[in-house]
Design a protein that fits this description.
The chain has one domain (11-149): START domain (Alpha-D-Glucose-1,6-Bisphosphate, Chain A, domain 4), CATH 3.30.530.20. The protein has 4 helices and 7 strands, in the order E-H-H-E-E-E-E-E-E-H-H. It is an alpha+beta fold. It has a 7-stranded antiparallel β-sheet, with helices on one face.
Length: 158
């Protein structure tokens, strides 16, 4: 038996916000601000804590918790009423360096790459607006980002 190197697809976003790291961290983790950009949910603030986002559509476990510096968690998508997901688990890493936020989400299956890019671009737009005290609807931002990434929002992959 020998080991082998595997190539995996990931998406990465880097954006600098006009806000201190502590305020950005709160947007990423506080159950009072999560609904403004991520939908109803909560993140238990410790390694091993549970993650429930978008009303339970996304579930995971915190894998890294360093306040105002690093947040990592597993990401699994569930359809309504499912007790087991049809999708493979993926991993998110949010790194904060002052007001610069970097997100890496991996692995992303080929068929989901454009849609994932559209989704995270929209989420970053929502964070940016929320940090300014504005709270647009996610659906209002999708068309611009769908066009940017070549996604047909009337035929999203599920």
């Amino acid at each position: 038996m020998t080991g082998e190197l595997l190539a995996e697809s990931a998406v990465r976003f880097v954006r600098t916000f006009d806000a201190p790291a502590e305020k950005i961290w709160a947007f990423l983790t506080d159950s009072k601000t999560l609904p403004d950009w991520y939908g109803e949910g909560m993140i238990v603030p410790r390694e091993g804590g549970t993650v429930t986002l978008m009303g339970g559509h996304v579930r995971g476990v915190v894998t890294g918790w360093r306040p105002s510096q690093f947040l990592g968690y597993t990401w699994n998508v569930y359809s309504p009423g499912e007790s087991a997901s049809r999708f493979a688990i993926s991993y998110l890493e949010f790194t904060l360096e002052g007001s610069k936020l970097t997100l890496i989400h991996r692995p992303i299956p080929q068929a989901m790459q454009s849609q994932t890019m559209m989704g995270w671009h929209t989420m970053f737009d929502l964070i940016e607006a929320g940090l300014r005290g504005e709270f647009p609807k996610r659906s209002a931002l999708f068309p611009k980002n769908a066009e940017r990434y070549g996604v047909d929002i009337n035929n999203l992959k599920r």
